Amino acid sequence: MSDSQSTDSLPVRQRGSDLLLPDESRTARERLMWGAVLVLLTLIAYSPVLKAGFIWDDDRYVTHNRMLRDAEGLKRIWTEKGATPQYYPLVHTMFWGEYHLWGLNPIGYHLVNVLLHAGGGVMLWLVLRRLRVPGAWLAAAIFLLHPIQVESVAWITERKNVLAGLLFFSSIWAYLRFTPIDDDDNQLSWRWYLPALALFVGALFSKTIACSMPAVMVLVLWWKRKFSWKQVAALLPFCAIGLYMAMGTSAMERNVVGAGGEEWALTPIQRILIAGRASCFYVEKLFWPAGLTFIYPRWLIDPAQVWQFVFPAAVVVVIVAFGVLAWRRRGPLVAVLYFLGTLVPALGFFDVYPMRYSFVADHFQYLSGIGLVVLVVALAGCCWPSHARRTAMGVGGLLLLILGVLTWRQTHIYADVKTLWRDTLAKNPAAWIASYNLGLEMLDESDALAADARSIHADDPERAGEYLSESRRAMTEALNLFRQTVQHKPDHARAHAAIGDVLRKQGDLQGALAELNRSIWLNPEGMEVYNLRGLVHQAMGQTEDAIADFRRAIETYEIVIRRIESKGQQYALNPKSRPDLIYRMNLGRALADVGRLDEAQEVFSQVITIRSTEAAAYFERGKVNGRLGKVKQALADFLKVTELRPDDPDGYTFLGWALLDAGQGGMAEPVFIRALQLNANNPKAMAGLRRARELLAVESLFKAASNRPTTKAGQQ
């Protein structure tokens, strides 16, 4: 057989591809049926995610993404880099539409992810069919059902992957309609060129990993022996657009997302070692998907350890071996180069934020793994005996069943954020990012339980005690998790601050102060840490130190905000979350505690200027105005509190006392009655009501005395 007649270009039936499932389907009805089977299998395997919630990073992309709220946000998604965590406008546009369809119900977002994944698998099947790859349907089914894909599908944030995958394969399919790949067809079909280009741009607007598409087409054309300068010229616009988008994404990762610092300070040799080991890691997980986890351990890369060079050497040996084989059959080399080429952005040569905690992640090889899957399936299709079709179908079906079950099981760890982090720590105890984030979740749970206990204490003391016990348990677990974090990452400033916060709540003020000082030493711009240290100083009676800390927290907040704005990180600015208001409120209370009332009044007024609906600021300013003798101003402030918080007994109580100070006992009585209706066990309101009624009684006596008739002098 001559080189031009190699098995790379033989028709499908001559190579036994029909042994591995339905690639012999020729009619549109058959293709539709088998495509529907792919979708159905995907829906079954991923059915558990329809009950899942939001997890890590979903807040930045969906739940707290203010760009999804209105038309102005939609405009900024496309026109303003930094309005969203990454410039993937097509992804955020889909989220925008979904938000306006079903709000923050996670089932809708999960279902769309699953359907996009299924659609990508169908388009992959059509691409492989057009390329006459043996076992195309089986390869596409493996792509859909392989458990390594779960991270991309079950994680709403990774809409980037599934949407880019669908458009990536669709663009390749359209380009294969544009360019001839059969020996008897040498005419370019230009009506498919612009659709291919548009789909490619859409894929880039979803995730720039799709920039490898023109390189993939070069490999395909070389494989099919259709490579020509005309074909290269047609791909030049794809290359230019892809390179431009890739450079933009790299710049955003470095300057906006934050992929810079000690974790990314790697030498060229270290990056080669990372690339070699990561490539081998992905091959291992592809063919033996055991121990899949959300965060893998971050390897220690040391060029002094000779054994670490085994991995890049192995990659080179494989490429050379398949390169030698390419003299006869180019297909295997194309499959390997596709696998490695689409992995390049995630192999450590470019800085990406996840390198901070791991060099590998399942979702990095969402598009890549299919290269080796196709290679193995195609080889099996060529080598399987032609008389054993049923056996081949049985083996293929069993493989899909095993993969489907593994995927179904893997989806359960994405049920919620706590389940995800607990699973990660069970498989990777050194995952400091998991222990820290799970600690934050447990601390939030502790605070919520404590709040519930306070709200029901009067009605059900026994149940309130149970809530407090659970709150203390959750707080202890949070403390242990934060300590686990600093054990594996001693320079984690936020973890030290979290330990300090827990110790403060537990009453260990000296221990809290030591941890907070450590956090500030590691990161002098930790604005929340200054606030926490101020609370500790205040609890220790060191109010002047507390005032200095609260002021430093406010100053640091303003510095951070200016930096965020200068970098264009608008997604990080949430107008509903103004931590500086908390710092200002604490500052105002501390100033009031030491009698600096005019300064305190000014601080509370600043809070009201920033947010006119901040009831707590009116309440505190009202108390200060009362102490300053400004009765009218105090009355106005407490009246505003009752408007903003009509169910707050304290607002009515202080309003009643302000009315008493103004000499309006008659108006104060119903106010105190309202306060007692909201909280019957309110001694200050009870005392106020007694005082109001005493004043009313005195007023009645004076009125009675003034209305008594007088007698003329000397009359008896």
Descriptive overview:
With 716 residues, the protein is mainly α. Among the domains are: 14-418, no CATH class; 429-521, Alpha Horseshoe (Serine Threonine Protein Phosphatase 5, Tetratricopeptide repeat). The chain has helices spanning 28-45, 58-63, 71-79, 89-102, 106-130, 136-145, 150-154, 159-178, 193-204, 213-223, 229-257, 268-287, 310-325, 331-343, 370-383, 389-411, 417-427, 432-456, 461-488, 493-506, 509-522, 527-539, 543-567, 579-593, 597-610, 615-627, 631-644, 649-661, 665-678, 683-707. The longest helix has 29 residues, at 229-257. The radius of gyration is 34 Å and the shape is elongated. The N and C termini lie far apart (149 Å).
Features:
716 residues; mainly alpha; Serine Threonine Protein Phosphatase 5, Tetratricopeptide repeat; disordered N terminus; disordered C terminus
In short:
The chain is mostly helical and 716 residues long. The protein has helices at 28-45, 58-63, 71-79, 89-102, 106-130, 136-145, 150-154, 159-178, 193-204, 213-223, 229-257, 268-287, 310-325, 331-343, 370-383, 389-411, 417-427, 432-456, 461-488, 493-506, 509-522, 527-539, 543-567, 579-593, 597-610, 615-627, 631-644, 649-661, 665-678, 683-707.
